[in-house]
Write a structure and sequence with these properties.
By secondary structure, this protein is α+β, with helices and mostly antiparallel strands. It has one domain: 3-Layer(aba) Sandwich (Rossmann fold). The protein has three helices and two strands, in the order αααββ. Strands 1-2 form a two-stranded antiparallel ribbon. The longest helix is centred in the N-terminal third of the chain and has 10 residues, at 2-11. The two termini are 25 Å apart. The relative contact order is 0.16.
């Protein structure tokens, strides 16, 4: 929860932050299931979690294996109009990957 709040503050996000235990130690497929049930009110979603889960999810969504050290942020675009269309076969694009040690001081 602390990480999500810090990122939200840094980005100027003032909306609601939802917390769920559905992702704790969950495989990538479970993330997809939860995301596919989101309301269409949500155009963008940020997931804060741990590895190897997030690396697996990123690879499932983009087809690209990436190493995500602690505090890494990934931006993915998905070719869907509705969250209900998201499936494990959906392939998006990795737009940005920010690893802490690669950022300027």
């Amino acid at each position: 929860r602390k990480t999500a709040k810090k990122v939200a503050k840094a980005c100027g996000y003032t909306g609601q932050i939802a917390e769920t235990w559905d992702f704790y130690h969950a495989p990538a497929e479970d993330y997809i299931t939860v995301l596919s049930r989101l309301s269409e009110d949500h155009q963008r979603v940020m997931i804060v979690g741990h590895n190897p889960n997030l690396e697996d999810l990123l690879e499932m969504l983009t087809g690209q294996p990436e190493v995500m050290p602690t505090a890494t942020l990934a931006q993915v675009t998905l070719p869907i109009q509705q969250w209900g269309n998201l499936s494990p076969k959906t392939k998006g694009s990795l737009v940005n990957l920010w690893r802490p040690k690669e950022l300027p001081n």
